[in-house]
Amino acid sequence: MSPAPGDPLELAKSIVNTLEERKAEDILLLDLSGICSFADLFVICTGGSERTLKALSNEVQRRVKQQYESGPLHVEGEPASGWVLHDYGSVVLHLFSKQLREYYGLEELWGKGKVLLRMA
Hints:
Elements: H1 8-21, E1 25-31, E2 41-46, H2 50-68, E3 74-76, E4 83-87, E5 91-96, H3 98-104, H4 106-109, E6 114-119
Parallel strand pairs: 2-5
Antiparallel strand pairs: 1-2, 1-6, 3-4, 4-5
């Protein structure tokens, strides 16, 4: 599938709204423009269980397809692994279990990015 068209920030906000509605935890929208070579925005969140991660992943894909008639370029990982990544081109979504989010520490790794939104 092709990446979602239009403004990356609009897509990221749509993803954030979906995650919020579906009870994702600790949602972060990070602007990496000029810092990261492969994406402008990261959306990072935590799911409380494997089942929640699966539901979040499925719902984001469904909503993006519905709104933009498009899907991710690539999806990596499985809910059972604790990390699912959706690559939408300029926007990358990271769905984590609490343990793996702490372990990988993307917020610290990409600490030069600008936090646009944090919903704890």
